[in-house]
């Protein structure tokens, strides 16, 4: 998957920044290789969600890709994050 380098996303959601001092919400994980643990995983999922009307994917496909990315990243909270994306992520998929 190629993503425009200027593409902006907010990592795992929901998250609220408090006075610019800290964030409360879904953790992106500790730094690994200079970036949050789920940096690329959340990027891929956000792109899939944002462009869901233009991609030949179903909601189930996007959840499977999210699960596969978290498995590859060895994210310890994978089952919880996958369940939350499945339940609370976008539900209006065209495919």
Write a brief caption for the model:
This protein has 95 residues and is of the alpha+beta class. It is built from 3 helices and 4 strands.
Overall description:
By secondary structure, the protein is of the alpha+beta class. It has a domain at 26-88. 39% of the residues lie in helices and 13% in strands. α1 (39-50) packs antiparallel against α2 (59-72) and α2 (59-72) runs antiparallel to α3 (78-88). It is globular, with a radius of gyration of 13 Å. 14% of the residues are buried.
H/E element order: EEEEHHH
- Alpha carbon gap, first and last residue: 19 Å
Q: What fraction, in percent, of the residue positions are helical?
A: 25-40%
> Using DSSP, what is the number of strands?
4
> How does the overall form come out from the CA principal axes?
globular
What number is the mean pLDDT? Answer: 92
Largest beta sheet: what is the strand line-up? 1-2
Which structural class fits the helix and strand makeup?
alpha+beta
Biggest β-sheet description: 2 strands, antiparallel
Tally of alpha and pi helices: 3
Q: Which band does the percent of strand residues land in?
A: 5-15%
Radius of gyration: 13 Å
The oligomeric state is: single chain
Unreliable stretches (pLDDT < 50, length at least 5) are: none
């Amino acid at each position: 998957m190629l993503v425009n380098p200027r593409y902006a996303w907010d990592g795992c959601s929901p998250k609220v920044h408090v006075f610019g001092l800290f964030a409360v919400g879904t953790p992106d994980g500790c730094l690994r290789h200079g970036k949050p643990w789920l940096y690329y995983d959340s990027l891929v999922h956000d792109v899939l969600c944002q462009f869901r009307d233009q991609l030949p994917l179903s909601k189930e496909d996007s959840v499977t890709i999210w699960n596969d990315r978290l498995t590859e990243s060895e994210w310890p909270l994978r089952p919880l994050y996958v369940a939350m994306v499945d339940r609370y992520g976008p539900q209006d998929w065209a495919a």
